[in-house]
Structures are given as structure tokens and as C-alpha cells.
Amino acid sequence: MNKAIERAAGLSCFKAPTEITPLGGGITNVNLRVTDGDADYVVRLGSDIPEHGVMRWNELSLSKAAYELGVAPKVVHHEPGVLVLEFLKARTFSEDDVRDPENLPRIVDLLIKTHRGLGAHLTSPVLAFWPYQVNQTYMTRLIAEGSPHVSKLPELKAEQDKLIVATGPVEMVIGHNDLLAANILDDGRQLWLIDWEYGGYNTPLFDLAGLASNNGLSEEQEREMLTQYFGSDPNKFWRSYQAMKCASLMRETLWSMTSELHSELDFDYAAYTAENFDRLRAVLSDFHNT
């Protein structure tokens, strides 16, 4: 952490930083809050992460577009391995906050605005994030690298083949693709989306499914969410949505299995893998009983 603080202090965008403190919540980057003069900033330190498909040029492009749309903080500075953003005086959501019946419609409105509007602000190419390809890449890599979870992969591959069929044709939008509660902020006036490292073209069902599976929404809340987003009967989308919900949790599980092998951050990835694998089994059971 001392090296990270030293690097942040020496960035050319700062005149005389007076306080640099770690920010919690990041499980792929080192995040710091920097006070420079009368302004505060967030410094995100992290290089490309090939095993997760994270390319910082993609994150930068999407972060800039999201700021122009008004759903993310301004990019102040960037250089290889560094992204500096304005600090938002806002509260980080918890899973309970996402489930709050007053907040969930606000989050869905945020997704509608993002999905329908962000593309108009892009000024350079961005990646696609197709969850089934992402999952296949993870599985191939886990086998090649001798993951302790290799025995689970044939079952997951067989399940994924069924999910692909059930998903069917999809609409493409620019998605955030990592809707953990910690990536949603509330400043009292509006909601914000932060951390765009997995952003890219995807079906809107993936963000909706990720929001539900990562934050424990009830089926009633899921149906209300789909009705609000699509403006029509949720039964029309329910089977595809359920498949994408499984794909989202499978991706989170495989992400954590891969992080067990590669990440040097101080985080209990093994426990996170177990937690997500349990969640995945539950949603797969619901999917097969639908």
C-alpha cells in the first residue's frame, strides 16, 4: 500500500496532495482517496487483467462516455495503470439498499438511461461482453492452469449449453456488466455507476440479472424490475432472463475461481467462490423448475 500511496502522490495532475487514504470495496484494483487543495479525487491503480478480459483503454473510454451522460464521475487524469476521477460525495449502496423498495425503481431508471444513452457519447471502439464467451474463456483457463475447481467445470459447461439455447436472440446495449451494490452510489439527488472495467456491449438482461443475483432480489422484485424496464408483461422475458441470471452468477463464480489463482489483493476469494457457487446452484434449480 505504501508504494501505491507514493505513486498517487507523484501523479502530475496533483499540485500538493495533503491526504491520501485507501478506499475499501475494490477487489480488482487499489483505490485511494486523494485530497489536493480544496478538491478530492479517487485514484484507481490497476493494469490490464488479461485473465478477466479487463483492458484499461476500454474502461477509460466507457468512463468518459458515462461522465458525458451524467451517470459517472469525471475523468481527471489517466496514464498506464492509473485512472483519476473526481470524488463523489455520495453513499455507497449495500445489498440492503438495492433491495429497498424506494431505491430499486431508481436503479432501474439509471440502467434505462445508461443502456439507451451511453452509446451516443462513445468516441472510440469498446469491447463486447458476452457472458457465455467470458465463461468459456474462464473454464478453458482454469483447466489449463490446474485450478482446484476443475472437477466442477464439466457440470458448469453442460449447464451453460442449456442456458445459451434458452437465452435466444438478444438486443445489444452498452452494459455496465458488474452490478454489485458497491458500484452504485447515491449523493441524495441522483444515483451514479462507478467502476467500468467490465463495461461493453451486452444484452440488457445481463445487467438486470446481475442486479438481481448479486443483491438477492425477490421474485416479486424481479418481475417489477422487468415490467418497469421493458414496459410490458415480464412473462415475455422471464425464461431468457432466468437463463441470463444463471449466466451472471456462473460468471461471478468463475471470476472468483480465476482470482484465487492470480490476484495478489488481500481478499478471501475462496470464500467468495463458495458463496457464489451456492447462489448459482440455487438459481439453476429455479431455472430448471421454470
Features of this protein?
about 290 residues; ethanolamine kinase activity; three-stranded antiparallel sheet; alpha+beta; Phosphorylase Kinase, domain 1; five-stranded antiparallel sheet; globular; Aminoglycoside 3'-phosphotransferase, Chain: A, domain 2
In short:
One of its GO terms (molecular function) is ethanolamine kinase activity. This protein is an alpha+beta fold and 290 residues long.
Structural summary, described in words:
The chain is an alpha+beta fold. It has 2 domains: 2-86, Phosphorylase Kinase, domain 1 (2-Layer Sandwich), CATH 3.30.200.20; 91-288, Aminoglycoside phosphotransferase (APH), C-terminal lobe (Aminoglycoside 3'-phosphotransferase, Chain: A, domain 2). Helices cover 48% and strands 15% of the residues. The strands form 3 sheets. A 5-stranded antiparallel sheet has the order 1-2-3-5-4, with helices on both faces. Strands 6-8-9 form a 3-stranded antiparallel sheet, covered by helices on one side. The protein is globular.
- Major sheet details: 5 strands, antiparallel
Content-based structural category: alpha+beta
Work out the helix count. Answer: 10
Radius of gyration: 19 Å
CATH topology of the largest domain: Aminoglycoside 3'-phosphotransferase, Chain: A, domain 2
Organism: Actibacterium pelagium
GO molecular function: ethanolamine kinase activity
InterPro entries: Kinase-like_dom_sf (IPR011009)
Protein name: Choline kinase
